[in-house]
Design a protein that fits this description.
The complex is a heterodimer.
Chain A: E1 4-7, E2 10-13, E3 19-25, E4 33-38, E5 45-49, E6 53-54, E7 62-67, E8 70-75, E9 85-90, E10 99-100, E11 104-108
Parallel strand pairs in A: 2-11
Antiparallel strand pairs in A: 1-3, 3-8, 4-5, 4-9, 5-6, 7-8, 9-10, 9-11
Chain B: E1 3-7, E2 11-12, E3 18-25, E4 34-41, E5 48-54, E6 59-61, E7 69-74, E8 79-84, E9 93-101, E10 115-119
Parallel strand pairs in B: 2-10
Antiparallel strand pairs in B: 1-3, 3-8, 4-5, 4-9, 5-6, 7-8, 9-10
The chains are: A mainly beta, B mainly beta.
């Protein structure tokens, strides 16, 4: 099983500031990495796939980078609606054996 | 616009079987391009993929749950279902249904709103 880890567990950021979230895979997942955003009481929403491609309707302030085992999600200027939990997810294998990171909570500083 | 909606009992007794259904609207579950899956999230915790199914009946399971899980599809109703047997309190979670491509190469993209299932006597 590919184990995903994320850091930090919590990130306190002021509105308008930049947030940088990290995700690491226990083995290479190439670019088969997605980021999902989850707000309280809501389902996750796909933000980024292919490590760096924004999903439909996702603002340009969200960007992803990395490949192999090290990945980063950057939110360039945090808006109030961006305070949420962010999960990375790998989909490297077929048949599917999806695994998620434990999440990074982005809260208001 | 594709929509997925989970349904089923919100309370299940320990040792019984949890049964949930996901109804797909705005698209066909028989699409050759997609699989349909279940993911769960215990209260305050992270996400765990449970299983996925292709419209033809091909099934894929998380090895850690495989002995207790059955996933099935009903193309005539545009629905797929999850059964989880011998439940315990550890199976208490919000259960989501979601879509992902068949053959890999892309993530889970559309999610249902989720349904909370509590295991308690």
């Amino acid at each position: 099983e590919i184990v995903m880890t994320q850091s930090p567990a919590t990130l306190s950021v002021s509105p308008g500031e930049r947030a940088t979230l990290s995700c690491r895979a226990s083995q290479s997942v190439r670019s088969n990495l997605a980021w999902h955003q989850q707000k309280p009481g809501q389902a996750p929403r796909l933000l980024i796939y292919g490590a760096s491609t924004r999903a439909t309707g996702i603002p340009a302030r969200f960007s992803g980078s990395g490949s192999g085992t090290e990945f980063t999600l950057t939110i360039s200027s945090l808006q109030s609606e961006d305070f949420a939990v962010y999960y990375c997810q790998q989909y490297n294998n077929w048949p599917p054996q999806f695994t998620f990171g434990p999440g990074t909570k982005v809260d208001i500083k | 616009q594709l929509q997925l909606q989970e349904s089923g009992p919100g309370l299940v007794k320990p040792s019984e079987t949890l049964s949930l259904t996901c109804t797909v609207s705005g698209g066909s579950i028989s699409s050759s391009s997609y699989c349909w899956g279940w993911i769960r999230q215990p209260p305050g915790k992270g996400l765990e993929w449970i299983a996925s199914i292709y419209y033809s009946g091909n099934t894929y399971y998380n090895p850690s749950l495989k002995s207790r899980v059955t996933i099935s599809v009903d193309t005539s109703k545009n629905q797929f279902s999850l059964q989880l047997s011998s439940v315990t309190a550890a199976d208490t979670a919000v259960y989501y249904c979601a879509r992902h491509p068949f053959g890999g190469g892309y993530s889970l993209d559309y999610w249902g709103q989720g349904t909370l299932v509590t295991v308690s006597s």
